[in-house]
Every structure is written in structure tokens, then in C-alpha cells.
Design brief:
This protein is α/β, with parallel strands linked by helices. It has a single domain (8-206), classed as P-loop containing nucleotide triphosphate hydrolases (Rossmann fold, 3-Layer(aba) Sandwich). The protein is built from nine helices and five strands. It has helices spanning 19-30, 37-43, 50-59, 72-81, 83-106, 139-150, 154-163, 167-173, 184-206; strands at 8-12, 33-36, 113-116, 131-136, 176-179. It has a five-stranded parallel sheet, with helices on both faces. Pathway: Cofactor biosynthesis; coenzyme A biosynthesis; CoA from (R)-pantothenate: step 5/5. It catalyses: 3'-dephospho-CoA + ATP = ADP + CoA + H(+). InterPro entries: Depp_CoAkinase, P-loop_NTPase.
Length: 207
């Protein structure tokens, strides 16, 4: 748990599951404070940050853009080919991401806060939360959505899926599940119902 007494819901799901769409609904329709670990992962490698120097020292200038910022696509392609390199990168970045995340969550003023992370289970971030919400979709739909959205080959999407927790493992940690195999209206309906439930839980926790 964080040092704050804020009621934290962890939101996760595999690539292409619709995590961002669910989080956006919580934020825009209900005013919930959302902390996105993916965004924090970009912050900790911004130019001038120590982590970027360490990454460039290890992988060379090929992982840098002309302006000195991180070329995330090149780095991602490299580390997914070499599991040892991916583990090194995770050991460097996860503590930094956690610190940024904890500080942001502590500033929440909504009745509860949402921690959005694709690696909520794998990184142990779920231990910071009171409940885990999984956005679940069939793997074939994840692949179809991601190849369309990111314009990347199916093989690359499958490599990312391999690096993420298995669907069964995520569901094993889930307290709540959104099934996102229909349209956006169906997703919003499920979010709206969960919001009312989380309001009740967070209010009860403060009494």
C-alpha cells in the first residue's frame, strides 16, 4: 500500500484489451483520478533523467532519436528478442516507475483512484491496490485490434503477449472483470456500474 489512505483500484489487461478506453470513461464521466504506469514509464526516461543515460550506455545510440530522446520502438524490438536485456531494463525502470506512481496516487482527491498498468500483476504493483479490475478479451481480438491500431506485424504483438501475464494469470488476480468483446457503449455501461460499486466500497472504507 502507499502511504496515502486513498482507496486504489488496479486496472489491467493485455495489449489491445481496452484498458485506456475503460480508464478514460472512469476519468471523463466520473471524475476519477487516473494514474497510468505507461505514462510514468515515459517520464522516467525523459532526456536529462539518469535512466536514459544508463539505457544509452547499455544499448548504444541506436536507441536514441536525433533529438536525444528515447526511441521506444527500437528499444522494445531489441528487448523482446533478448529476455535477459528485458529483465535488466525492468529492474532499472520498475522502482523508478513505482516512485512516480506512488507520488501521483497520493495526490488524488476523488473518492478512489485508478492505477492503470499492463504489468500490474507481473511487476507486483497490484500489491499497492485494494482491488484488481481486469479488462478481458479473447487473444485473437487482442491481436486484431493491436495490429490495426499500431500498424505492427502480428509476430510483434504475439511477442508482447508472451511477455505479459497469461490471460488466466490476470484473471486469477481479478476481483472484478470487464468483458470488452463488444462495442464502446457496452464497455461504458460496465464501467458505470463498477463506478457505483467502487463508490460504495471507498465510502465504507473511510467510515
Amino acid at each position: 500500500m502507499t502511504s496515502s489512505n486513498i482507496f486504489i483500484i488496479g486496472l489491467t489487461g493485455g495489449i489491445g484489451s481496452g484498458k485506456s478506453a475503460a480508464a478514460a470513461r472512469f476519468a471523463e464521466a466520473h471524475g476519477i483520478h487516473v494514474v497510468d504506469a505507461d505514462i510514468k514509464s515515459r517520464v522516467v526516461v525523459e532526456p536529462g533523467r539518469p535512466a536514459l543515460h544508463q539505457i544509452a550506455d547499455r544499448f548504444g545510440d541506436a536507441v536514441l532519436q536525433e533529438d536525444g530522446s528515447l526511441n521506444r520502438a527500437v528499444l522494445r524490438e531489441h528487448v523482446f528478442q533478448y529476455p535477459n536485456e528485458r529483465r535488466w531494463l525492468e529492474q532499472l525502470l520498475h522502482p523508478l516507475i513505482r516512485e512516480e506512481t506512488v507520488n501521483d496516487l497520493a495526490s488524488a482527491e476523488s473518492p478512489y483512484a485508478l492505477l492503470v498498468s499492463p504489468l500490474l500483476v507481473e511487476s507486483g504493483q497490484y500489491q499497492m491496490t485494494r482491488r484488481v479490475l481486469v479488462v478481458d478479451v479473447p487473444e485473437a481480438l487482442q491481436i486484431a485490434r493491436t495490429t490495426l491500431r499500431d500498424k505492427v506485424p502480428e509476430e510483434q504483438v504475439r511477442a508482447i503477449l508472451q511477455a505479459q501475464a497469461r490471460r488466466e494469470e490476470r484473471l486469477r488476480h481479478a476481483d472484478d472483470v470487464i468483458t470488452n468483446d463488444r462495442d464502446l457503449a457496452a464497455l461504458h455501461h460496465q464501467v458505470d456500474q463498477l463506478h457505483q460499486f467502487y463508490l460504495t466500497l471507498s465510502t465504507g472504507a473511510k467510515q
